[in-house]
Design brief:
Blueprint: H1 2-14, E1 19-23, E2 26-31, E3 34-37, E4 42-46, E5 49-52, E6 57-61, E7 64-67, E8 72-76, E9 79-82, E10 87-91, E11 94-97, E12 102-106, E13 109-112
Antiparallel strand pairs: 1-2, 2-3, 3-4, 4-5, 5-6, 6-7, 7-8, 8-9, 9-10, 10-11, 11-12, 12-13
Length: about 110
């Protein structure tokens, strides 16, 4: 479930633009409404719904995203709260996760530290 929350977080940052990001040892590339992962997973967004090739579905209503795996994500200002206990805070081009992970966005690239 942790990987899914991180993938959803990154997908929210990149979906809808053509780019690539480096995430640990996995690379994600987005073309239009589809994100391709080097691990073989594909994400397609149609309106407020994102479909993952592993069968997971994400639906966004306002500032809340619901995953078919039961995880909920709520965004308030610059902070996103996950029902799995993870919190993400964004300041400028840097996002800090409560698990100690830092994400930095430069242009169309996101780096996970």
């Amino acid at each position: 479930m942790k990987k899914l929350s991180q993938v959803l977080f990154l997908s929210a940052l990149i979906i809808g633009t053509t780019n690539s990001i480096s995430y640990g040892t996995t690379t994600y590339q987005t073309f239009g409404n589809t994100t391709y992962s080097s691990d073989g997973t594909t994400y397609q967004r149609f309106g407020n719904t994102t479909y993952c090739s592993d069968g997971t579905t994400y639906q966004k209503f306002g500032d809340t995203t619901y995953s078919s795996d039961g995880t909920t994500y709520q965004k308030f200002g610059n902070t996103t709260y996950s029902s799995d206990g993870t919190t993400y805070q964004k300041f400028g081009n840097t996002t800090y996760s409560s698990d100690g992970t830092t994400y930095q966005k430069f242009g169309n690239t996101i780096y996970k530290n």
